[in-house]
Structures are given as C-alpha cells and as structure tokens.
Recover the amino acids of this structure.
C-alpha cells in the first residue's frame, strides 16, 4: 500500500482553489480490480441487473461484495491525505459508485460554510470537457464566491451553464480528483453510462452547530441511498473493519447518533 506525502504546493493549491489532482494513483492491477468490483457492486442494485441508460443509478460499496473498493476508505492514499489537506480530524462517510446519464447541472455537495468534507472522484473512462469530465469552479468553496453562487449562479457569470469558466478534470482511468464538497461543480456532454466512484470524508464536528449540520448531511445521504433501495448506510461489513482509525470513526458516529 503506497503512503503519500503531500507537498506544500499541493496543500496550498487545495486550500486556495478547493481541489487537487493525483495522476495515476492506482496501479494497473488495482484499477482492474476496482473496475471489476464497481460493475458487479452496482449491478447488484440495478433493477434487472443491468443499467437501462435512462437515469442515474447509485450504490454503496461498503459491502463484502466490493472488498477492495471498500478498503479504500482506510487506504493512506485517501484517509491520510484527507486529514493532511484539512489539518484536522476527519471521519469516513461513504465509498460509493454511480452510473450517470447526460448532464449534471452546477451544484455544491455541501451548502454551508461551516460544514467541510472532501470527495475523491474516480472516473472509469477517459473524459474531456466535451464528454462529461467534472467541471469545477476554483475557489468556490470560499467566501464571497460561495455565497454569490448559492444565490444565483447564472447571474454571477452571465453565460450558459456549460460556458461558465471552470477547471475541467480531463482524466484517464487511474486518475483521482480530490475536492472540497463546498465547491460548485457540474458535468456536460457525458454519455448515458458514465461510471464514477467516490471516497468521502467529513470533518469531525466539534461544536453543537456543526454537529447538527453533520447529522443533517448524513441523514440526507441516507435518503439518497434509500431511494435506490439501500436502506442501511453504515453496513455491518463496513462497521466491522479491524482498523484503529476506522473503529474510531465508528465510535464517533455512534456518539453522533447516526449509525443505522
């Protein structure tokens, strides 16, 4: 397992612009295993066992059917990096995958300045800006841009959503984009079977206000999974992983009262 050491430039880039890119983070054998588990894990939850290419589908990868993908939550290339980029304790929230269809309009994954989280994004096909690469507005996790976009993103730039100035994560399988979940992002021109996996961490809340925000975000995430048939978010398999940091997460989630 490769242990990463971030450069000062990488940390500063993330904190200033809200994202950092890791090229070819996976070895070829890991990438093959990831792809095999991704399709098998998602298709288990797709009605009829095959994506209809008509709408998005989502699945948790926290079951024993996807052990390698689930293990990424504890992989230092993800867990250590999340804590180093924020400089504070984080806890693992989810490892999941999606079949996306067509465009995804601009949005942040966290709508509050007080709530921090990081999403590691993994695409399984080569992508460019023209065919579905994730587009991200640099610095949109920070004020005042974050609030200006939340009020009226169209008025902010005065152009069509697909023409908004942005960074496009043009990638090859094996590349990983890590971004602050408060960043405004979108995707245009994608196929009807775009495969994207994520590994997500939240900041460990330290005040009653941030605890309430964190609980609300977790409950919303559970509702999304339930809409695709997955009624248990923190699965018994995920909760049983024998890792000191992982078990600290489980205890903390129990203290917050959000375990299933």
């Amino acid at each position: 397992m490769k242990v990463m050491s971030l450069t000062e430039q990488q940390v500063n880039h993330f904190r200033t612009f809200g994202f950092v890119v890791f090229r070819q983070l996976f070895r070829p054998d890991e990438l093959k295993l990831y792809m095999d588990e991704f399709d098998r894990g998602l298709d288990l939850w797709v009605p009829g066992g095959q994506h209809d290419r008509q709408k998005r589908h989502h699945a948790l990868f926290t079951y024993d059917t996807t052990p390698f993908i689930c293990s990424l939550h504890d992989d230092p290339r993800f867990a250590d990096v999340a804590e180093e980029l924020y400089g504070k304790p984080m806890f693992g929230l989810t490892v999941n995958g999606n079949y996306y269809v067509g465009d995804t309009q601009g949005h942040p994954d966290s709508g509050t300045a007080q709530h921090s989280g990081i999403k590691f994004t993994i695409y399984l096909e080569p992508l460019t800006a023209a065919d579905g690469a994730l587009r991200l507005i640099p610095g949109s996790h920070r004020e005042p841009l974050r609030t200006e976009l939340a009020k009226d993103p169209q008025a902010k730039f005065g152009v069509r959503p697909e023409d908004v100035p942005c960074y496009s994560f043009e990638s090859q399988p094996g590349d990983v984009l890590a971004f602050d979940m408060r960043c405004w992002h979108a995707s245009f021109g994608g196929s009807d079977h775009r495969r994207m996996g994520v590994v997500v961490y939240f900041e460990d809340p330290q005040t009653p206000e941030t605890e309430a925000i964190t609980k609300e975000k977790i409950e919303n995430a559970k509702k999304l999974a339930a809409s695709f048939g997955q009624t248990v978010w923190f699965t018994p398999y995920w909760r049983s992983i024998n890792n000191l940091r992982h078990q600290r997460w489980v205890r903390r989630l129990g203290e917050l009262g959000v375990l299933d």
About this structure: The chain has nine helices and ten strands. Residues 121 and 193 are 16 Å apart (CA to CA).
